[in-house]
Amino acid sequence: MKASESGFDSRSAIRNLRFRITFLALSMIAARPSEAADTLDTPLNYFLYSYGPAATPIMHLGWLMTALLSAITLIVILLLVIALVRKRSSAAPGVIGAESGGLRWVYIGTGISTFILAGLTVYFLAVLNAVAKPTETPALTLTVTGYDWWWSIEYEHADPAKRFVTANEIHIPVGRPVLLKLKSADVIHAFWVPVLAGKTQMIPGLVNQKWIQADVPGIYVGQCAQFCGAAHAHMNLEVVAESDRDFEKWQEAQRRTAFPVSGHNEHGYKLFMDRCGGCHAVRGTEAEGLHGPDLTHLNSRRRIAAGLLTNTPDHLMKWITRAQYFKPGARMPSIALSDSEASALASYLSTLN
Amino acid sequence: MAATDATQHRIEPLLERIPEVGRIPAGSAIEARLERIWETAPGWRGWLSTVDHKTIGVRYLVTAFLFLVIGGIEALFLRIQLAGPDMAFLTPEQYNQLFTMHGVTMIFLYASPVLSGFSNYLWPLLLGSRDMAFPRLNALSYWIFLFAGLFMYISFPLGQAPNAGWFNYVPFSGPVYNTGPNIDVFALGMVLLGISTTVGSINFVVTLFRMRAPGMTINRVPILVWGTLTASVANLFAIPAVSLAFFLLWLDRQIGAHFFDVANNGQPLLWQHLFWIFGHPWVYVVVLPAMGIVSDALPTFCRRPLVGYTAVALATMATMLLGFGVWVHHMFATGLPTVALSIFGAASMVISIPSAVAVFAWIATIWLGKPVFKTPFLFFAGFVALFIIGGMSGVMTAAVPLDWQLNETYFIVAHLHYVLLGINVFPVVGAIYYWFPKFTGRMMSEKLGKWSFWTMFIGFNAGFFPMHIAGLLGMPRRIYTYPSRMGWDEVNLITTVGSFIFAVGVLIFLVNVVLSLKRGAWAGANPWDAPTLEWAVSSPPPAYNFATIPTIASRHPLWEGRIEGEREHSRTRLEEGYLLMRGRETLGTSPIDAKPVVILKMPEDSYTPFLVGLFVSLLFVGLLLHSWTFTALMAASSCAALSVWMWPRRKLGQRTTGYRSASAERGGESP
């Protein structure tokens, strides 16, 4: 077992496990938190939390079905247990019970089951209808493309000059439906931000559509939900829902190209162009690679490596030099850098705000 | 039926014979002669050439259990890796190969073959026949299964086992993203295994409609037979889809066919349709015969017949019929139009109804019976409980919008393990306890048996129930690790502990099997006082099964005369019956009413099934290695072996029984 890196939110397995067997019972009775989803203990918990109209009806459907079907399960298992243990008159040995009889069990049991299933079908069709399309026209259209193993996000705009590309972090205005066009650049992935909506596959050659809406400002975690290879486990994203004003500010900032390089960053800039620019793009420079995330506004993001690490200068340099350690199989190689190269590159990267 | 049967009459007068009716006392010289006719040569000759359905059945069972153990060990490796967050016990590639091989092994090499094992062993005994309709085909089916299983593990030691999941979605399994031999092994192995399953299924279907003892009308066959028949018919429709899918994929990978390649106008979604049109019926293929086992064996311990025989038999077939119309529920998240999703979602709800029929029939049988708490009964009763839980979680996944959340999470992993372990492994282990005395002549230990049940039952629920919660907490499937911030640490640790407890339970069971083989108490012919025909013959049964072909008069031949409120009717005759001993012979009967129609001349033991199986499998090895000369050589060898096998022999000419005259004498026996 590899020892984990300090500062990295990993920990060597069993040692640090907090053993909270009661967690389910507690979370069942917990009040709905009003705070953002990223503060949840279980950020992908769609069963107890939902923050938008594409998810809430599904959550309620989940509650009803779980309650109803758990009750039925308990009743039927109880019948089974009673059938097993109930007292019986003693019979002569060797005598076999009559074959007839008992059909009433089948009629009643199947009859009630059919009735309940029919009711559930009507209910789920109503929910399907409710979440299939947003009630108002989407405020925004994004194209999200799945790559091995990260997400490219393209903000559409009628004015081509106002379109821009970012990665792994989606910003949306709070309280408005957002239309997502889902594509894949390689294999099948699935876009899933559980507390905002169910999952949809991203299939090469197809453009699937889905919509999300967050009614509470906050950060919502998503994860690839279709097995896509070596780093499938490390393909996360975040949705940041913010006020219209903050969202506009963020969009304005994202549309800008990178700041021109000043004197002391030139070494780092050259290094970036040589070693990173083939795969990564920084708009406004010669780096126009399309194989990895667009890094024009790298430092505006909360996390790096598709959600794997928090975005600190320390993590960034660890990621660059040891990508294959943190994310085995990733397309990003571990890049050997001397100390002076590393500090020059770090210095340049720190300008990508 | 009788009219059709009669038209075959007198086509070839030389081949007409009316068999004598008589008795063969145990230990008589005439019985010894029968024994000599049917016995298999000792040593390796017999080992490679036997076509005895009982030997083949046991081979299926042993091989399938070996695969179960291998698949189980793979699962334990996965559970160690997932015991805590950010573990590095396995690399992602190792994890992906292990979870893929775990699924492939359990689903294809254990779950279905183990049921074929029971059915191969039991069908002729249950039906009152001396063998399956095509004994050599039966042997071929086993050999190809064995070779296909070995084939699929061929690249495992090289660290290049299949790694794209048992569902093997393109393009990840295609030539661009999976360049090693991993997927070629899987694709060719699946086509090869498909041959085994197909010939086995044909054999079951023909056996049912041809080989039942006189008087065993279609409404008297045990539910296990209904289950296996339904599964076999389904296989004949489902297997072509998956064989085609894997063959197209192999063409994509090896000759650039581009069926699934977007860059060349191929369509990745096509794979999902082809795979699940097979995949969903397959789920029922691996559970319906197991449900049949319970429907037949549970009543033995309840001391009464099954409640609602007809309803359960019809529910079995209804499940499969509907099972062909629900494959899209594996694809709810693929972006299909909501109208299509609604239809398939509703159909997936409806498929629960026949399952409800079976569940209430079992509970009623227990309720109205007087249960005897022997080990097999514990497994069957435990199965009913697990079936209920797995069924309910299945209903949740049928609700389309909810499935958009549940799909591809551990909730599905929990559901499918409740279904596959609950409805397959528990009945199968119970069935081993139940039929072990028949297979070996010895009883298994009750004490170890109860230990094994409770350890398995508790371990199973401790291991797999928390997976529901992991799924509701958003844990996706097939991730090799997870960070602590997701809140999945505890459920995963509990699951890992539970899975090891379950493994201990399986180990206790295996120890029980080994110890009981040598030390178990002698069983006698019918230790459970069970009602069906297999218990009428000695344990283990003689090579010829039945000295004389019995005549059946009810569903419960060995309980006749003891059932409360039973109407007077003619009795099943086990001692006296048709004497068929001019070489290997058994009786062929009409499909519905089971009237005697023909004396079937059964083939002798032969090496040809082994050789055909071997050459066909080597042909696939040739394809894998791109050794075209070798492939052609093996194709020619297969044809040669097949020609020897099929060479017409005069002595295998079938004799009609002179049905018209015979029925005048004996036709009144069965209603």
Automatic annotation (TrEMBL), chain A:
<dbReference type="InterPro" id="IPR002429">
    <property type="entry name" value="CcO_II-like_C"/>
</dbReference>
<keyword id="KW-0249">Electron transport</keyword>
<feature type="domain" description="Cytochrome oxidase subunit II copper A binding">
    <location>
        <begin position="137"/>
        <end position="253"/>
    </location>
</feature>
<dbReference type="Pfam" id="PF00116">
    <property type="entry name" value="COX2"/>
</dbReference>
<feature type="transmembrane region" description="Helical">
    <location>
        <begin position="105"/>
        <end position="128"/>
    </location>
</feature>
<keyword id="KW-0679">Respiratory chain</keyword>
<feature type="domain" description="Cytochrome c">
    <location>
        <begin position="263"/>
        <end position="353"/>
    </location>
</feature>
<dbReference type="InterPro" id="IPR001505">
    <property type="entry name" value="Copper_CuA"/>
</dbReference>
<dbReference type="GO" id="GO:0005507">
    <property type="term" value="F:copper ion binding"/>
</dbReference>
<dbReference type="InterPro" id="IPR014222">
    <property type="entry name" value="Cyt_c_oxidase_su2"/>
</dbReference>
<keyword id="KW-0479">Metal-binding</keyword>
<protein>
    <recommendedName>
        <fullName>Cytochrome aa3 subunit 2</fullName>
    </recommendedName>
</protein>
<keyword id="KW-0186">Copper</keyword>
<dbReference type="InterPro" id="IPR009056">
    <property type="entry name" value="Cyt_c-like_dom"/>
</dbReference>
<keyword id="KW-0349">Heme</keyword>
<dbReference type="InterPro" id="IPR008972">
    <property type="entry name" value="Cupredoxin"/>
</dbReference>
<dbReference type="GO" id="GO:0004129">
    <property type="term" value="F:cytochrome-c oxidase activity"/>
</dbReference>
<feature type="transmembrane region" description="Helical">
    <location>
        <begin position="60"/>
        <end position="85"/>
    </location>
</feature>
<keyword id="KW-0813">Transport</keyword>
<dbReference type="GO" id="GO:0016491">
    <property type="term" value="F:oxidoreductase activity"/>
</dbReference>
<dbReference type="InterPro" id="IPR034236">
    <property type="entry name" value="CuRO_CcO_Caa3_II"/>
</dbReference>
<keyword id="KW-0408">Iron</keyword>
From TrEMBL, chain B:
<feature type="transmembrane region" description="Helical">
    <location>
        <begin position="58"/>
        <end position="78"/>
    </location>
</feature>
<dbReference type="GO" id="GO:0015990">
    <property type="term" value="P:electron transport coupled proton transport"/>
</dbReference>
<keyword id="KW-1133">Transmembrane helix</keyword>
<feature type="transmembrane region" description="Helical">
    <location>
        <begin position="221"/>
        <end position="250"/>
    </location>
</feature>
<dbReference type="GO" id="GO:0006119">
    <property type="term" value="P:oxidative phosphorylation"/>
</dbReference>
<protein>
    <recommendedName>
        <fullName>Cytochrome c oxidase subunit 1</fullName>
        <ecNumber>7.1.1.9</ecNumber>
    </recommendedName>
</protein>
<feature type="transmembrane region" description="Helical">
    <location>
        <begin position="339"/>
        <end position="365"/>
    </location>
</feature>
<dbReference type="GO" id="GO:0022904">
    <property type="term" value="P:respiratory electron transport chain"/>
</dbReference>
<dbReference type="InterPro" id="IPR036927">
    <property type="entry name" value="Cyt_c_oxase-like_su1_sf"/>
</dbReference>
<feature type="transmembrane region" description="Helical">
    <location>
        <begin position="139"/>
        <end position="156"/>
    </location>
</feature>
<feature type="transmembrane region" description="Helical">
    <location>
        <begin position="270"/>
        <end position="294"/>
    </location>
</feature>
<feature type="transmembrane region" description="Helical">
    <location>
        <begin position="412"/>
        <end position="436"/>
    </location>
</feature>
<keyword id="KW-0408">Iron</keyword>
<dbReference type="InterPro" id="IPR023616">
    <property type="entry name" value="Cyt_c_oxase-like_su1_dom"/>
</dbReference>
<feature type="transmembrane region" description="Helical">
    <location>
        <begin position="630"/>
        <end position="647"/>
    </location>
</feature>
<keyword id="KW-0472">Membrane</keyword>
<dbReference type="InterPro" id="IPR000883">
    <property type="entry name" value="Cyt_C_Oxase_1"/>
</dbReference>
<keyword id="KW-1278">Translocase</keyword>
<keyword id="KW-0349">Heme</keyword>
<comment type="similarity">
    <text>Belongs to the heme-copper respiratory oxidase family.</text>
</comment>
<feature type="transmembrane region" description="Helical">
    <location>
        <begin position="185"/>
        <end position="209"/>
    </location>
</feature>
<keyword id="KW-0679">Respiratory chain</keyword>
